[in-house]
Write the structure tokens for this entry.
Amino acid sequence: MHTEFVSVDSVHPDIRILAQAADVLRRGGLVAFPTETVYGLGANGLDPHAVAGIFAAKGRPADNPLILHIADCREVAKLARHVPANARVLMETYWPGPLTLVLERTKAVPDAVTGGLDTVAIRLPDSVVARELIQLAGVPLAAPSANTSGRPSPTTAQDVLADLDGKIDMVIDAGSCDIGVESTVVDCTTPVPTLLRPGGITLEMLLETLGEVEVDPGIGSEDVIPRSPGMKYTHYAPAAPLILLEGEYPAKTAVLGEQIRKAQAEGKRVGAIVAAETVLSAGVVATVYGSRNHPEEVAANLYNALRFFDNQPVDVIFAEGTDEIGLGLAVMNRLRKAAGYHIIRCE
Ligand code: TXA
Ligand code: MG
């Protein structure tokens, strides 16, 4: 299959180009498109055959359900059987934006989308390109992140092509995504809403809005099976083994230095993903994710930093952990999974 590459402005997109993409979607095709979080791989969310194409292109396990993307709040009534008061408050506060709500589904939602669950995940993105595209397609778009399953999510159209060139019909390029980590997933079917995946809307923001939020124990650990099916898979991982350093400064940078010296003494080629403030010894292939004090900067650069090592011959990568404040919670969730929970605690 030839993958068509088109570019639009992220704020004032050419509607004729988006109309072409919407045609491809209506005919059952696959179109990767930008959102404010990461690039999504879109298909007509009401067409089981089109949705099956997403799973095939990504190599995604069929039991991992997809998010339906809408451009108008009124669409929720067609897809969800019931919208609890908490969910309504979240929609009013954070839509359009990087928040996905899990609700009881209607029969309009195909099994292919939900992996057979009786709930559906719905999101109204902020990206103008995404919303115009959904509007023009006239159907909700099922869209996971537009990467090969298990790889870091794409934050540019070039990242999408690196994984999916020849496997999808079209990529819409609109530059890099603002937020850089996926949307927050909140289950609104529980009496107190439950955070299933940390993301663009922070836990602090949810607590401020709702007063009370459960946090799924599966988020932080390898030993608990998460309630969000997708969270149980190894994810976001570069090719070389990744080791995550967690803890306080200055212990964290001291241990990082020791680990690097030890690996180099064993003849290993060492890579590192670090904060701008961290000074490294010679011979390390390093990429900087931003300042220790700016989690939003770290989130925006995180997947790029993981993908950087696609083309770097290294034997091991050390990643410096961040504080779990604001977007730092999502960053650490992704880093722990990328490391396959191979973590060194620094004290
Ligand atoms: O920011 C995002 O959310 C991006 C952009 C493209 O919108 N999309 C995205 O989709 O990250 P994906 O498929 O990579 O992740 C969706 C997550 C998975 O962890 C999946 O298991 C969970 O949402 N999910 C989907 N439907 C669910 C449901 N009914 N119940 C619980 N979790 C669900
Ligand atoms: Mg994904």
User: Anything to note?
Assistant: The pocket of magnesium ion (ligand 2) is lined by residues 144-145, 153 (CB under 6 Å). The longest strand covers residues 99-104.
